[in-house]
Amino acid sequence: MTPKAKILLVEDDPNLSAVLCDYLEMLEYNTTVAADGEEGLQKFTEGSFDLCILDVMLPRKDGFSLAADIRNINQLVPVIFLTARGHNDDRVAGFRVGCDDYITKPFSSEELALRIEAILKRCMNRDMRTTNGIIDIGKYRFDSFNLLLMHTNGEQKLTPKEAALLKLLCLNRNNLLPRDTALKEIWGDSDYFIGRSMDVFIARLRKYLRHDPAVVIQNVHGSGFKLEVKE
Questions:
Q1: What is the DSSP track for 137-162?
Q2: Are residues 212 and 224 in the same domain?
Q3: Which of 20, 93, 108, 147 could be cross-linked to 163 through a Cys-Cys bond (beta carbons 3.0 to 4.6 Å apart)?
């Protein structure tokens, strides 16, 4: 049977790592193991993963730093933190770097399995929304194939670059979309004048989305943009 997903497990406790790896393999997940943050980053860059499970207290590079590096490479891959500490500061730090869940040791194997399943199902649903070119954005429907943004107030025909930028924002929904990423993927370059052009496109998209106050494109100063959709 084909494995359900590819998981990167970064845990420095060899006993816990072996137990978790065996359990994940039993659940038919294809699991890659790393023993420290630097090895974890190397294996992430060498492979393709559907989920990362990271211990917080890792040698050479801690879990928060590793997650930040992973987010610089891939904005969408979900991350679960494992930690022996239950302090709120750690939880806030984890969610600040973009984790999807946080499990405090000791935990049951069933709890871990259920959380993994829930996160992967959510990501699958997100990906399915884009397979037919239709993406729901609050009260809007975005037909990325036909370059149409639809609302009860009417339809807005988008230019190809407007549609490409909106789709990229949607794929990073509620997460930072770095300026350089958008510029290189859509315009193929990231110089100053192209950057100013993208700002004009962002302003147009804000205008098109103005009929739903729950949908906002935020400027993240010096970093990029974030499409915030309040569910």
A1: ETTEEEETTTTEEEETTEEEEPPHHH
A2: yes
A3: 147
Cβ-in-10-Å burial (0-12, 13-18, 19+) of 27 comes to middle
Q: What is the pLDDT of residues 164-219, one digit of tens each?
A: 899 989 988 888 888 888 888 787 766 667 778 888 999 999 999 999 999 999 99
CA 67 to chain centre: 11
Per-residue tokens: 163: 């549609």
For residue 19 the two structure tokens come to: 């137990």
DSSP 210: T
Tokens of 132: 């037919």
The pTM for the full model equals: 0.56
One domain, residues 58 and 81: yes
Cα–Cα dist 181/164, whole Å: 12
Strands 79-83 and 51-55, sheet pairing? parallel
> Can you give the CATH number for the domain in which 87 is found?
3.40.50.2300
